[in-house]
Design a protein that fits this description.
single chain, 221 residues, alpha/beta, seven-stranded mixed sheet, two-stranded antiparallel ribbon, globular, binds S-adenosylmethionine
Length: 221
C-alpha cells in the first residue's frame, strides 16, 4: 500500500508481544508543524511519532485475548495497538483527526501481514455519526490522548457513547495532569476505575519511563 506523498520517512523495528513490527513514519514530527492548522484548531502533528504510551498499549493488546472483539482506538496516530489487536483477531477501527496518520497506519498493518486495518477520520470535538453507527465497541482504547485541558471534556462523553454495556476502556498515559481529570469525570459518571503503573523500557520521552494504564468498566446498577 502506498504511503502518502511528500514525507521523509524512517522505519523502526518494534518488538511487541511475539511480533516484530516494522513501523514506518515521518522522520520528524516537528518538521510537519503547519501554522495554519495550529491557528485553526491548535492541531499539532503528534501522530507522526510512536509514543511510549502507544508501545505500552500495544504490549497490553498482545497479552490479551481480543479475538472477535469490536475494538476502537481513539487518537491512534500510527496505531500500533490497533495493528496488534488486528493481528490478534479483533475487529478494529483505528481513528484520528489526521488522515495521513491513518494512511501510515494502514500501510504498516498491511506490511506487517496483520491484514487490512479499518480506519476513520474522527475529531473528538465533532465525531462523525458513522463512528457511532460502527459501535458499540467491546473495547475503547487510546494511548497518550490526554495532553491538553480540553481533552477530558471531549473524550469522557465520547467514550461513554462508544463503549458497549459491559465493555472495557483502556487508556495508557505518561502521567499527564489531564488524565487525572478524565478519571475524575468518568468515576463521577458511573465508571469503575483501576490504574496500574507499567515501565517503558525504551528511550523515555520528557515524561519519563513510568506509564499509567487506566482501565474502566461501568459500575453495575
Ligand atoms: C501524543 S499522540 C499519540 C499517538 C498514538 N496514540 C501513540 O501513542 O503513539 C496524540 C494523538 O491524538 C490525536 N488527536 C489529538 N487531538 C485529536 C482530536 N481532537 N481528534 C482526534 N484525534 C486527535 C493526534 O493526532 C495524535 O495522533
Amino acid at each position: 500500500m502506498p504511503l502518502p506523498d511528500g514525507y521523509d520517512v524512517i522505519t523502526e523495528r518494534i518488538a511487541v508481544g511475539g511480533l516484530t513490527v516494522a513501523v514506518t513514519h515521518p522522520r520528524s514530527a516537528e518538521d510537519l508543524i503547519d501554522e495554519d492548522e495550529y491557528a485553526r484548531d491548535e492541531r499539532l502533528p503528534y501522530w507522526a511519532d510512536l509514543w511510549p504510551s502507544g508501545r505500552m498499549l500495544a504490549e497490553w493488546c498482545a497479552g490479551e485475548d481480543l479475538a472477535g472483539l469490536r475494538v476502537v482506538e481513539l487518537g491512534a496516530g500510527l496505531a500500533l495497538p490497533s495493528l496488534v489487536a488486528l493481528a490478534g483477531g479483533a475487529h478494529v477501527l483505528a481513528t484520528d483527526w489526521y488522515p495521513d496518520a491513518l494512511a501510515f497506519a494502514r500501510a504498516n498493518a498491511r506490511d506487517a501481514g496483520a491484514g487490512e486495518l479499518d480506519t476513520m477520520v474522527a475529531d473528538w470535538s465533532c465525531p462523525p455519526p458513522e463512528l457511532f453507527e460502527r459501535g458499540p465497541f467491546d473495547l475503547v482504547m487510546g494511548a497518550d490522548i490526554l495532553y491538553e485541558n480540553r481533552h477530558p471534556r471531549q473524550l469522557a462523553p465520547l467514550i461513554a457513547r462508544l463503549a458497549a454495556p459491559g465493555g472495557r476502556v483502556v487508556i495508557t498515559d505518561p502521567r499527564r495532569p489531564a488524565a487525572g481529570e478524565l478519571v475524575a469525570e468518568m468515576t463521577e459518571t458511573g465508571w469503575r476505575h483501576a490504574r496500574e503503573s507499567v515501565r517503558f523500557e525504551g528511550r523515555p520521552d520528557e515524561r519519563g519511563s513510568e506509564i499509567h494504564r487506566h482501565a474502566f468498566v461501568r459500575r453495575a446498577g
